[in-house]
Hints:
The chain has 12 helices and 10 strands. The protein has about 325 residues and is an alpha+beta fold. The protein starts with 8 loop residues before the first helix and ends in a 10-residue tail after the last helix. A hairpin with a 5-residue loop joins strand 3 and strand 4 (about 85-95).
Amino acid sequence: DVSSSHFPASAGKKKPHQARNGGGAGGGGGGGGAAGAGEKKRLSVLGEEGRDVSGGIDDKYALDRELGRGEFGVTYLCMDRGSKELLACKSISKRKLRTPVDVEDVRREVAIMRHLPRSASIVTLREACEDDGAVHLVMELCEGGELFDRIVARGHYTERAAAAVTRTIVEVVQLCHHHGVIHRDLKPENFLFANKKENSPLKAIDFGLSIFFKPGEKFSEIVGSPYYMAPEVLKRNYGPEIDIWSAGVILYILLCGVPPFWAETEQGVAQAILRGNIDFKREPWPHVSDNAKDLVRQMLQPDPKIRLTAKQVLVCNLIARRSLDQSALF
């Protein structure tokens, strides 16, 4: 079962931007550049990607209680004053956007959410707007909690339930890759259940580290969350294949409750990832099918050139059984 010694919630919930370009210093440590952005009379973040609401968003939306808090902003429950529909509003403080890179990250997140087609497996962005103090992303509300929390509460999943979750995650990967996007931060915290029902849809919610790519293009920026990083990210030479690696890490966790590559420090986790030794001996692995273990191995293939693609994962025996019942998730 999941325990704090093997899978500390604090490590799992590490804010993704802290892992950018070599760990914690990148996110919160850059105080020196803060004044420059703060002194500007008006920082325009979204440009053509969003609506200017200089008087604030209160005329259209009523903000309610806080739902979550990240490095750059706060997500609130909000209500559309016209339709009375409940939504979620992610408000990103402009004071926290200290560098041009931070500003570009927010602009790109909005552009990517607009670029991807509507999908039952991706949270819908209703509107992006900005006022003097913040950028506001108004999205559909998901009230069923994080996949992360359900894994912790459950310990580990049956193969059938793990396959259903993995199918949804890999369908998101396939959609992203087909439309020229690498997600770059797939992890259980970035998937929410739409509601608390047993058959609730699962939705990807965070595209803050995602990036557009062209076929054959390689990236070198180290981003993501330590447990889920592919070895080629650590080697600073990667493409879209990294998303399948991260989905493979999630599948391993779903099946046994702990990450495949674990250590007390981020450096130790990185070394474990580069060594690539996957433990299939501890419980419950002796009782897990060869099919499931083979899929994990092929998704966690160190060589991205021969790692499975999203399409290949979706047609493999474990995942392709369309008799998968969402109610098996619980």
